[in-house]
Write a structure and sequence with these properties.
Organism: Legionella oakridgensis ATCC 33761 = DSM 21215
Shape: globular
Pathway: Cofactor biosynthesis; NAD(+) biosynthesis; iminoaspartate from L-aspartate (oxidase route): step 1/1
Largest sheet: 7 strands, mixed
CATH topology of the largest domain: FAD/NAD(P)-binding domain
Strand content: 15-25%
Family: Belongs to the FAD-dependent oxidoreductase 2 family. NadB subfamily.
Pfam families: FAD_binding_2
Catalytic activity: L-aspartate + O2 = iminosuccinate + H2O2
Distance between the termini: 53 Å
CATH superfamily of the largest domain: FAD/NAD(P)-binding domain
Helix content: 25-40%
Oligomer: single chain
Radius of gyration: 22 Å
Low-confidence stretches: none
């Protein structure tokens, strides 16, 4: 149902989903399969394809190999969290990992395979086993494109692109302590018409991702500005751990590019971190056992310390010991991009 006014239009849906990353798209697909008669509004602040998920170059961690185990994955995760993980949540997510991979395959997401047909699992920082499912070096892009293609086939899912969620519509009961209120919908800015529309729904889902673009130097896209967390907080939700921002340790250092991420998979396949002044493989001093595959907080601090104590504003990620054919197979996108920059 739609009504119009000078300020904007009013829409009514069964479910309002804000965010078109993997979480938002996958939720819509699960919802349609369970209750196909529901009308769903899907909100994206830019094109539906522009989300943090599409920029993920590495893969998705899930236990699959016979040598691996759920318990080992949980142990690795808790260790990587440095004692700060909420264990029940971590365990629940990890146990759902293998089934999530099966669901993604159902949407024709083609994970890398070996010549024998087995999955070509990669190993990344903090993991004790190979358990990373990849789609080349563009896992996020391939996954979101596949889900987006399927999602657009359903008439009951209505896309609203270039629409920014401004605030949640709430209703409070000042004299009822057992009910702190409810969320009825959201005010959405239509960027093309410059009008604010009212979206009402029985269920509102925030799948808006993080706020990495708060920082100047980041691998996050422009859309990652934390809108969902801010709206939820203003509506009365409790938020926690907002001081924790994960920085990817390795971005390309170049005068004209400051946000090109070099996936952890490159280190997983043998790339070495070296001091730009001395050529020393410095991770031997910071993480003697895991080396370049230490957790991201350890690697990030190590790189920062090396830069602070040297005459250079960068460190080297050295994979010159690998062949050109190997580089093209493992990191085709990086190879092309770096060659283009070198040519310029």
């Amino acid at each position: 149902m739609t009504t119009s006014s000078q300020q904007g239009q009013s829409y009514e849906y069964d479910v309002l989903v804000i965010g078109t990353g993997l979480a938002g798209l996958h939720y819509c697909m699960q919802l349609v399969e369970l209750q196909p008669k529901l009308k769903i509004a899907l909100i994206s602040k830019a094109e539906a394809s522009e989300c943090n998920s599409r920029y993920a170059q590495g893969g998705i961690a899930a236990v699959f190999s016979p040598e691996d185990s759920i318990e080992s994955h949980i142990k690795d995760t808790l260790r990587a969290g440095d004692g700060l993980c909420y264990e029940p949540a971590a365990e629940r997510i990890i146990r759902q990992g293998p089934e999530a991979i099966k669901q993604l395959q159902h949407y024709s997401i083609q994970f890398d395979k070996l010549p024998n047909g087995q999955f070509a699992l990669a190993k990344e920082g903090g993991h004790s086993h190979r358990r990373i499912f990849n789609c080349g070096d563009q896992t996020g892009l391939n996954s979101t494109n596949a889900l987006l293609k399927v999602t657009r086939l359903y008439e009951q899912i209505h896309f609203f692109e270039h629409h920014i969620a401004v605030n949640l519509i709430t209703h409070y009961y000042p004299h009822r302590t057992e009910n702190q209120g409810e969320v009825l919908g959201a005010y959405i800015l239509d960027c093309q018409q410059n009008r604010i529309h009212t979206f009402l729904a029985r269920c509102i889902v925030l799948a808006t991702g993080g706020a990495g673009k708060t920082f100047r130097y980041t691998s996050n896209p422009m859309v990652a500005t934390g809108d969902g967390v801010a709206m939820a907080y203003r509506a009365g939700a409790r938020v926690g751990n907002m001081e924790f921002y994960q920085f990817h340790p390795t971005l390309l250092h170049h005068p004209s590019v400051n946000n090109f991420l070099i996936s952890e998979a490159v280190r997983g396949e043998g790339a070495l971190l070296k001091n730009a002044d001395t050529g020393e493989r410095f991770m031997r001093r910071y993480a003697p056992e895991q080396l370049e595959l230490a957790t991201r907080d350890v690697v990030s601090r190590a790189i920062f310390n090396e830069i602070e104590q040297s005459q250079s504003s960068f460190v080297y990620l050295d994979i010159t010991h690998q062949s050109k054919s190997f580089l093209k197979n493992v990191s085709h996108r990086y190879t092309i991009h770096c060659c283009r920059l070198a040519w310029k």
